[in-house]
Every structure is written in structure tokens, then in C-alpha cells.
Write a structure and sequence with these properties.
Layout (H helix, E strand, L loop, with lengths): L3 H4 L1 H6 L9 H5 L3 H6 L16 E7 L3 H16 L4 E7 L3 H13 L6 E5 L2 H6 L9 H6 L9 H4 L3 E2 L2 E2 L2 E6 L1 E6 H7 L7 H11 L1 E2 L5 E8 L4 H9 L3 E3 L6 E2 L5 H14 L3 E3 L5 H10 L3 E7 L3 H7 L4 E4 L12 E7 L6 H13 L1 H9 L8 H4 L2 H9 L1 H8 L18 H12 L5 H17 L1
């Protein structure tokens, strides 16, 4: 019988769910309409490869300019391999792609390689026999698992197996309009109290009392709610995995109330459900807020578009200095009949400069191997772009162990209902949390 995490993927997709910074829209900064244009809105089976070549089906969730980079990467691989042809197909955001993969698995037609949101890996891993163990391939290729950045790979090492490789990995980062902070005589905030103070200095209203400028903008994404609970010193899911671990100690209330209060006094513009990150980013670029909390995956695009002095900064500290990780990883499906060829593509992406390194450097995603981070290319880039180095330095505070468990996929719809009640409807925070806690306990028991 299919476990609940897998069974809920389709339902979560239909509900518009987002899991820990892994929505295709928020990572790509593109609308659903522009995403569909990348492949004519179709996700049909790939054409047969050139004669004599092993064809590898690679499903991904990168839209817009990131889709173009994926196509360039795959084309470069195909040019350098006479016996393998990788066919990359956009399958929607991480939730949509995971749902389609689930359906394909049931029909015995799954891809060879699947890009999935970082948290989706644990959902698929909860089903025996879906994901191939990459350990032997790593060993045969002379690649040490110790070279994988620990913050991006700790949860992929299960019972001696390596079930995924990090690819486009990210953390939240604070984008700051330094010109605007100079205008109000403030420094970059480093704590919650400073953050609120700076935001209030930035807020502006018109003669009708309507906000014309906010302190910062933040998209509708569950990633930031996992983050703020950890910053408050709480643990989102308890150790027993039977329910929330942040209710009795009050950390969830403190965290969620902080966001609500910031929203109510204009410090925070909280993005809409649809096209949320696009909206929040545009507000920042148009000077309608002084700061923008979002994924580092948007870094290069924001830098290119900003007509002001833009710098990145660590996310301001609560009781704890902590950020979660998001983004995506790649897995090989156990049912793939072409594992050796699939691995060659995964290895090439992992190691070659024209693979994952180029993709990361041209987007803002973080290097996911230590050797990549230590490479001459990255060292030169960081010297020229200190904001990119700031994001990597923040990894010292990365932690996902409070929420990255297979069961987290089960609770996403209820968490979203809670967020919407608190932020859009301004409902009582504790009441909303109590409803969420009861729902989570019930789901964990099923």
C-alpha cells in the first residue's frame, strides 16, 4: 500500500501546496503562464533519441531563465557524449512534478532522473524501492560523499545508502536596498528587534493612510514559517514525530505573532498566494519596500535588475541564528533500465564546470560540493560579488532537523490554512495554532 506522504502528493498539488521553499514559482521567479511557455504547456513523452544512443529521461521543475540554463547544460552534455542522449522535460513546479512522477511510477513509466524539491526526497524515500542507492556509483567514480556540503546532504544518507544528490540548493537571504537604509539613517538589521525598528523607519503612508512603502516583502511560502519557529528556539515537529514540538513551549506562538504584528503595522508586505515571489521581488525592485526576504536562487536576477545599491545580509536573528535550506535535488529512479547512463549524467552535473557549477553561478543557487566552493571559478566570483559569498557564509547556521521528516508532507495543507488565517484574515494566532496542532496530531497518527 502506498504510504500517506505519497498518497497526498496529488491532493497537495491540486491545493496549490508549497513545501519548504520548494515551489517551482518561488524558486524560479516566474509565473505559471511563462513556465508553460517553455514547452508549449505540454509534458508529453520525449522523442526517441538518435540511433545507437541510450536515451535518459530527465524531468525537472526549472522555468523561465532557469529552464534555459537546464537546456544549455543538457545540450553540452549531449555534445560531449556519443552514446547517451539526455532529454530534459519541464514538468511543473516541485509539487506538480512529484505528483506526475507518482502517477508515472504507478503506470510503470517513470523517468530515469527526477529533479525534486529537497523535502520531497524524504517523501519518496519513505516508499521502499523507489529511489536508487547512489553509493556504489559514487565509489566507482572516485567521489567521496564527504565532498557533498553537509547542510544539503545530511538527510539523503539513510541506512548506509545515498538516495539523492543536491543540485539547486538555497537558503533564505535578506536582500537590502542600501540606498534606502541610508536615506532613513539605519544600518542593516541583525536581530528581530532591529529588523522591526528599521522596518518602521522605512514605512510610508499616503494622505489616506494607505501604505505606499513597507519595511520588507516576503512571499507566501511555508519555508519562512519553518524558519521563524527555529529562530524562536522551537522545534517544528517533535522528536517522536507524533505532532508539533513548538506549541507547549510557546515558540510557535511567539514566531507567528511576530510575523502577524509586522504585517499589521506595515513592516511586512506578505505576498499573495499566486505569483507571490514575483510580486514581492517586483515591489523591492520598484522601491516599494526596503528589504526583501526570499531565496538566494533569485540573487543574480535581482542584482541585474536593481538600479540601486543592493546587498545581501544574513536573515536577522531571533533567539537563535538559524536558516533552513530549500531548493532541489536529483534522484535516480530504481526502476530506470539505464542506470549506468543515468549516473554518467548525474556525475557530469556534479563534477563538470559546464554542469551544476555553471547553473549555480548564473542563478544564485549555492555550490553543493566543497570542491565546487573551493574552485578557482567560485573564488573569483565571490571576490567580485561579496553578496554571493554572504549567502554561502550563512550556511554555518543552516538547519532543517526540526521539520525535514517524511511526515511533513502530510501537514502542508493544514499549515497553509493556518498561515492564511493569521496573515490574510488576521485571526487570533493561538486559536489558529491550536487548530493546526490538533490536525497535525491526527495526521501523524494515521
Amino acid at each position: 500500500m502506498m504510504k500517506k506522504g505519497m498518497a497526498l502528493l496529488l491532493a497537495a498539488t491540486m491545493a496549490g501546496g508549497m513545501l519548504a521553499g520548494c515551489s517551482g514559482q518561488s524558486e524560479s521567479g516566474q509565473t505559471a503562464a511563462s513556465s508553460a511557455q517553455n514547452n508549449g504547456g505540454e509534458t508529453t513523452a520525449a522523442e526517441t533519441g538518435s540511433e545507437g544512443k541510450t536515451v535518459i529521461q530527465f524531468w525537472h521543475s526549472m522555468s523561465g531563465s532557469k529552464n534555459d540554463l537546464i537546456d544549455e547544460m543538457v545540450a553540452k552534455f549531449n555534445e560531449t557524449h556519443d552514446d547517451i542522449e539526455v532529454v530534459a522535460t519541464y514538468q511543473g513546479d516541485y509539487w506538480e512534478s512529484a505528483s506526475k512522477a507518482q502517477a508515472a511510477i504507478s503506470a510503470g513509466e517513470n523517468p530515469d532522473i527526477l529533479q525534486m524539491g529537497a523535502d520531497h526526497v524524504s517523501i519518496f524515500a519513505s516508499e521502499d524501492g523507489l529511489l536508487a542507492d547512489l553509493s556504489s556509483y559514487m565509489e566507482a567514480s572516485g567521489i567521496s560523499q564527504d565532498d557533498l556540503v553537509e547542510a544539503f546532504s545530511w538527510d539523503y544518507k539513510i541506512d548506509g545508502k545515498l538516495i539523492a544528490l543536491p543540485f539547486g540548493r538555497s537558503t533564505p537571504i535578506l536582500y537590502v536596498n542600501m540606498d534606502m537604509l541610508k536615506e532613513v539613517g539605519k544600518e542593516v538589521p541583525t536581530t528581530w528587534d532591529e529588523w522591526h525598528e528599521v522596518c518602521q523607519a522605512l514605512v510610508q503612508k499616503d494622505e489616506n493612510g494607505e501604505y505606499t512603502r513597507y519595511g520588507f516583502s516576503m512571499p507566501y511560502d511555508t519555508l519562512y514559517w519553518f524558519m521563524i519557529v527555529a529562530q524562536a528556539g522551537g522545534q517544528f515537529i517533535n522528536d517522536e514525530r507524533t505532532g508539533l514540538g513548538c506549541v507547549d513551549d510557546g515558540t510557535m506562538y511567539e514566531a507567528f505573532k511576530f510575523y502577524q504584528d509586522m504585517h499589521n503595522d506595515g513592516s511586512l508586505y506578505f505576498g499573495p498566494v499566486t505569483d507571490s515571489d514575483v510580486t514581492c521581488q517586483q515591489m523591492f525592485l520598484e522601491g516599494k519596500c526596503g528589504m526583501y526576504l526570499s531565496s538566494c536562487a533569485n540573487l543574480i536576477g535581482v542584482q541585474d535588475a536593481a538600479n540601486f545599491d543592493m546587498q545581501t545580509a544574513f536573515v536577522p536573528k531571533g533567539k537563535e541564528q538559524v536558516v533552513p535550506t530549500g531548493g532541489c535535488s536529483v534522484v535516480m529512479m530504481e526502476a530506470s533500465p539505464n542506470k549506468d547512463a543515468a549516473w554518467e549524467f548525474m556525475r557530469w552535473v556534479l563534477q563538470e564546470p559546464d554542469g551544476g557549477m555553471k547553473f549555480c553561478m548564473e542563478t544564485g543557487y549555492l555550490p553543493y560540493t566543497y570542491s565546487m566552493a573551493e574552485s578557482e571559478q567560485y573564488q573569483e566570483m565571490w571576490a567580485e560579488n561579496p553578496s554571493a559569498k554572504t549567502v554561502f557564509d550563512q550556511l554555518q547556521y543552516a538547519s532543517d532537523k526540526g521539520h525535514r521528516v517524511p511526515q511533513v508532507g502530510n501537514i502542508m495543507t493544514d499549515l497553509q490554512v493556518c498561515i492564511q488565517a493569521i496573515m490574510y484574515d488576521n485571526e487570533d494566532v493561538q486559536t489558529s495554532i491550536d487548530v493546526l496542532a490538533e490536525a497535525v496530531t491526527d495526521l501523524m497518527e494515521e
